[in-house]
Amino acid sequence: MLEACIFATILCGFFGIILKKNLVMKIISMDVMSTGVIAYYVLIASRKGEALFTPIIPVENGIISHVENGAYSDPVPQAVILTAIVIGFSIQALMLVGVMKLARDHPTLESSEIEKHNTP
């Protein structure tokens, strides 16, 4: 069921990129799609291990508790996901700056109108 929701999120973003004519809506659709991809990666990474604990050593009353090997989730997918979130945010900010530049020259953000005025 969770996979279906994630797949629906990815599809909503994909069709939003294709079908929406407004550039801001295309950027939002791309963000929705990347969120779905990241959620799918989190889902896959969480099902590999049996336990879903963070790799933090528990301390109770100033004493480090015993930790069994393999009882923690792999931190590498978490680092990759954080990197993907940061890169996605920076790409989204860059695209919004581009849309702001286009908005100065053209009164509309519709991609078809902008293409119509810029074709030679």
From TrEMBL:
Q: Quote the cellular component terms of the Gene Ontology held in the record.
A: plasma membrane
A Pfam match is: Oxidored_q2
Q: Which UniProt keywords apply?
A: Cell membrane, Membrane, Transmembrane, Transmembrane helix, Ubiquinone
UniProt membrane topology term: Multi-pass membrane protein
Subcellular location, record wording: Cell membrane
Indicate the transmembrane segments per the record: 79-99
The family assignment reads: Belongs to the CPA3 antiporters (TC 2.A.63) subunit C family.
**Name of the protein described by the UniProt record:** NADH-ubiquinone/plastoquinone oxidoreductase chain 4L superfamily
